[in-house]
């Protein structure tokens, strides 16, 4: 017996329907009012006359979300406008003109939402096809061939693979009739026969095909009452629940692969270690069919078809796949030679972008030309190392063997970035593979590299130089892939792994700043890391921490980790607590792409994606090249001592070049003769360069300069002059700067009342033609800005100043985040002033500012420590870059360090900036008196020193030394010990007269009181520096010894002012000499000053000491003890008999 249609009942005459064009419908009725029996298909009854539709407003629905103009209600998707009088739960025709939708009113999240119910009717009309039982193969074929490409949504299409009874009456001829019934039922469920009511209720509840329809009871007494009591299927709900559960399970499975698929990816080319140090497989990854039970599935579900969620792209053009195919595609995307970590990123767009890049079927395809290019780059990378090994087998070179794919990887990143508009790439890397990068990425001349191995090569430049695998390089060339100019700079670095990271970032930021690249589209950075250092060095985290800060961001860095799976001799299981060495990158939501380095095409694809990510989102990204180290830590090291099993496998490992060449030959991309010709061609290039290298007799380190300053020096790298102009200014300029510094240059800006008093005090000082420390700094900065010198001041709390003295950024007291920088309102065409509070980091931030200062000599870059002693957490940057930078790499740098210093009774941690450490590293000889008659002696001293160390005692001298830093014809680092109590000391003031045109920085400030008027009567000449001068003058005045004791201040400690101090000593022939300092004897300046002072006077007199005794801590934590120690040193300084008992 054929299936029956539910019984029909007449539609209410009051129903209004939207116009259906010119198409008409008829309705046919069968006797009995229910589906006819027999083999024939029932015909719908003829319809009565169609009611005239009433006029309605234009529908205001648009795609996506809209709001109904008349009703003020939220519309979603295909929803239509709602008549103002419609209530929740009612079904009405849309009153919009031209709209033919029946809409239903539903409450949604506290709002009344209208839903288009015709979409459900559409599924009913087509369910004969949509719900027909399908096999897995039929389903895949159907969706792949017939379904148009569209955005994937979890729709109401449901596919079943097990045989079920479909509804035969749902066909093309009966669909119109069913639609009529459905419309009537939507308006009023009681207006249709009970059998239709049950059918539609079951269908809406999700009953599977064949179960939604219930045959009506035969006509008999009591059948009407029985029919009235008929209920929808109760057994349909469990099937619906199972269907939903299975789909949710599949979604969970997909998400599991996205989150944890990388844990089972085949990343180790040696097949020994698990890259995540864990051999177990996550429970939710389907490594065998028995694991399906984790999701409530079993093997019988593998051929069932499931709809794909919008959070995956494994379907390609298909919106549904069998479970077996879903798992296979997930494994191809996440568990092969690429492992992707990205699900910790809290941005949906970024996650979707990554999913699309790795999940889309067939997306990782390369043309034959791209494969041949990759092979050629592998040939160059591999044969370069082979050549060095043949020629200099006993030399350290820290070769790239085991990760030769790094060279094509870097070139791919550069090529893709160049294609996206980048024209300047700044790189930083450790020593491993550096020569190869210089040769094959930067394109340094091979003969310049090969001659570095010649032990007879002489150094032509000043300084010590550095080993070949620490040197940097700057080169501009044509990118052959994009045919665009590109500049490449590899920053020189010490052996301190990762120390160059913030330096590269700072240089990148500076280059972006100077070319106006505010989004990082023109200048970018690439940082290379080793696996052990990336996990172990804290500077890596500090650098990441700067990556998205407004004044430090470089808009994304590509990090490439050469993951040798070993650190020198340390096993990774002993070297880190995290699964991967790259886990630190997760803190900034940087995606991490792990890749097996023995799969060159996978490496190239990952590098392309990394470059595209950086170009698209301007955020950091990490490429983890899981590889191995074919030799030991260096070529002379024996790794079998500590990693015997690993190196047994490495000895058997076929090189990646050979593997890839065999693959391309088998694919017919190249043939064996072509491959061998490529090798012989590069070998010939190396041999010819080697021959030319023998002609190199002198090493020019300046040829390896990573940051040239075109136009600043002469063509041979010398200063254009050896003089320094006056650092003074006209009074008009001083007054103008002072007036701006004491005002708010913008309107409608409310400042703090306390700040108003500070600005008023500044204004009074300007009227009185004097400056304090903050105002002197303001005038130095402001005048340089007028001259076109960019100034950047960075450090912790520098905008206000640790001691609340600077206030370079004003904050509106009524408007959040509204600020004003008066320094940027000084002149119409001034250079910009950047002042920025840094993160609570010294190592990273100081390295960043050093890199910023590298980019241009025409900028004053300053880093201020919150307290002077905090610089010791940045000691690596000071010791390895700032102090010896010019000697090692012929690279000048004018960075300024402001280090608050002074014994104020605040305890051992906030007192000393450790001046003894800086002075100890000065390169002048304490036992050699230079030629004091030399012309421009002071400038020559500055040119020869490695850095300048000053401790100013007056605001005026501080003003001059800042301006001198820029007016000098060369650049040297400047270390300034800045005061704390002197910031507000009433005697620490300077008159405009000492800052006018014609004035200079005073290296030594001599005695100018009574003692200077009668020098023969002076019994003691005290030398000092900094704040202690004010303690000494106060004590001298109290003791009435102004004629007996002279006090001379040494403002510039290094280079040591031999000439001026000799003049001071000769001026007081009868005076004994003493050095006075507030620091402990084994600290401070004494050990530096004493031998140089003795050399100055040809050791004719002793140099006595007046100060605190030696101590381990910089200062006492007890205020009383501090005062007692201070008084003791003052007593010693002014007791003329204090040194009589000493020989």
Structure write-up:
This protein has 1143 residues and is α/β, with parallel strands linked by helices. The strands form nine sheets. Strands 8-15-16-14-13-9-12-11 form an eight-stranded mixed β-sheet, with helices on both faces. A hairpin with a 7-residue loop joins β20 and β21. The longest helix has 25 residues, at 236-260.
Characteristics:
globular, 34 helices, 13% strand, calcium, alpha/beta, oxidoreductase, eight-stranded mixed sheet, transit peptide, thiamine pyrophosphate binding, EC 1.2.4.2, disordered N terminus, 1143 residues, 33 strands, seven-stranded mixed sheet
Mean model confidence by pLDDT: 83
**Bulk shape:** globular
**How many angstroms does the end-to-end distance come to?**
131 Å
Largest sheet: 8 strands, mixed
Kindly state the percentage of residues in helix. 25-40%
Number of strands: 33
Gyration radius, in Å: 41 Å
Portion in strands:
5-15%
Instruction: Give the class from helix and strand content and strand pairing.
Output: alpha/beta
List the total number of helices: 34
Residue stretches low in confidence (pLDDT < 50, at least 5 long) are: 1-93, 95-100, 105-165
With strands numbered from the N-terminus, the spatial order across the biggest sheet is 8-15-16-14-13-9-12-11
